[in-house]
Amino acid sequence: MVAQLLSLRWQVYLGTLRRSVWQTIGAVVAMLYALSLGGLLAVAGLVGGLRSDLSAEVVVGGAILVLVWTVGPLVAFGLDDTFDPRRLAPFPLSRRDLMVGSSVATLLGPGGIFTVVAALGLVLAWVTEPAALLAALVGVPLGVTTAVLGGRATTTAARPLVEGRRGRDLAVVVAVLLVSVVAPAILLVDSISITPETVAGTAAWASWTPFGAAFALPADVAAGAWAALAGHLVIALATPALLVLWWRRSLTTQLTRPARASAGHGKGLGVLGRVPDSPVGAVLARCLTYWVRDPRYATSLISVPVLVVIVAVLAGDGPWLLVAGPLVAWTCGWAISVDIALDSTAFWTHVAAPMRWTDDRWGRVVAIGVPGALLTLVTTLWTLGRADRWDMAPALLGVGAATLLASLGLASLVSALVVFPVNQPGDNPFGAKQGGSMGMMLSQMLGTLALAVVLAPAAVLTVLAIVRGSVALGWAAAVVGIALGVVVLLVGVRFGARRLDARAPELLTRLASF
C-alpha cells in the first residue's frame, strides 16, 4: 500500500502541473533552487571538513534543520494535505502504511530534497575522520528521520485543534502573538556576537536536546567521548520512537472520530447594511467580511507589522528605514492578487450576479485600498520622524501612494489572469494545497518586477531627492508617482474586468477542480 500512496502523491503532483504552465515552471524552479542551495551546503560541508573541525557547526546546523521541520509547518509553510487522515479514512489503509507513505512522500518534495542534499554536507564534514564518518552515516540519517517525523507528528496532532471556527480564530491570535515577539527576538539575535565560542556553546547545549543529539554522534566518536556518545545515542533513538508513538495516537484519533463542525450565527445585515446600496457596495461588504473573519486574509495583514519591524531593526535610523512605507503599500495592494483563488467556488456568486466586472474590481480594490492607505500613511510618517527626514515627506508620501495604487491595479489584472490552489474556506490553516506555493511565488516575483518597471521613474526621482536633499525633486517624485499609480490602477481595473468578462466561467471551472 505504501507504493500506492506514493503513486497517488505522484499523480496529484502531475495533475497539478498539467493545470498551468506557470505551475510547471514554478515546480522546475523550486526543484532547481532546492538542489542548488542544498548542493552549496553539501560542498561547504566537504570543503570546511577538509580544512578544519566543524563538529560544533554540524550540531547547530542539524538542530536548526530539525527545529524548522518540526515547527515550520505550523507557523509558516504548511504541509500538503494529500495524506490528510480524514480523507483516507474510508480506505483500507493501516496506520503503518499511511505513516511510511506520507513520510517518504514528504522527502520527495523540494523541501525534502534540499534536506537530503544538505544533510550530505553534514556527513562529508567528517571525511577526514573515518570513524567519525561512519558515526555520521548513522547519526545524520537519524536526525533527518527525526525532522520528518517531527513535522508530520506535530501537524497531525494540531489538526483537531483548528477544525472549528474557534480553533481557527485561536490560530490567528497565536500568530499575532508570535508576530509581537518578532522584534525582541530579532534584537536579541542582533545583539549576540556570533563567534566560534558562541557556536561551540550552542552546540554543547543543543547536543543534549532531541533536535541535535543525533548530529553529535560523530563528534563524540572523534573525541573519544564514549559516555557522551551513549547519552546522545539514547536521545537520538528515543526521540523518533516517541514521535512515532505520538503520531500513531493522533492518527488513531482522527481515523476513528468524526470531524468537528462549527456553525456561525449572526444578527442583521452586518457590514452589508453599512455600505452603499450598489453592486460595488455589495462586493465591498463581502470582501470586508472576509478581511475581518477569514484567517487566510488575516495573514496578509499580519505581515505588515513584521515588515516594519524587520526594516526598523535592520536599517536602524538610516535612510533604508524610509523603504518601510512603500513596502507596506505593496504588501496591502498585492494582497488582492489571490482574491479570486481565495473565493474558491463561492466565486460563482460573482459570475451569476447581474453586475459589471468593473464593479467587482472596484469593490475589491476599495476593501483593502482604504485600510492600506491608512497603514501606509502611518508607517511613512513614523519612518520620516524616526529618520528625521521630514523634508522628504512629499517624495515618500507620493511614492507610497503610487506603490499602493499601482499594486492594486496590477493585482486586479493578475487575479483575473491566474488562479492556483490555495486553502479552501474553512480548511485547516496548517495545510497547503499542492502547487499553491509555486503559483504564489511566481506571481509575487512577476508582480514585483512589473511594479519596479512601472514605478522606476518615480523611484529614481525619490532616490535622487533623498541623496541630494532636494525638496523640488521630492515634489516631482510625488507628482510623477501618483500619476503613474492612478494610470496603472485604472488600466489594471479595466483590463482585469475585460479579462473576467471573457473567461470568468473558465476560472470558476478551474477553481472547482482544485
UniProtKB/TrEMBL annotation:
Annotated keywords: Membrane, Transmembrane, Transmembrane helix
Spans through the membrane: 21-46, 58-79, 100-125, 131-149, 170-189, 225-247, 297-315, 321-342, 362-384, 396-420, 441-467, 473-493
Record has Cytoplasm as a keyword: no
Keyword hit for Lipoprotein: no
Highest taxon, organism lineage: Bacteria
Protein name as catalogued: ABC-2 type transport system permease protein
Lineage: Bacteria, Bacillati, Actinomycetota, Actinomycetes, Micrococcales
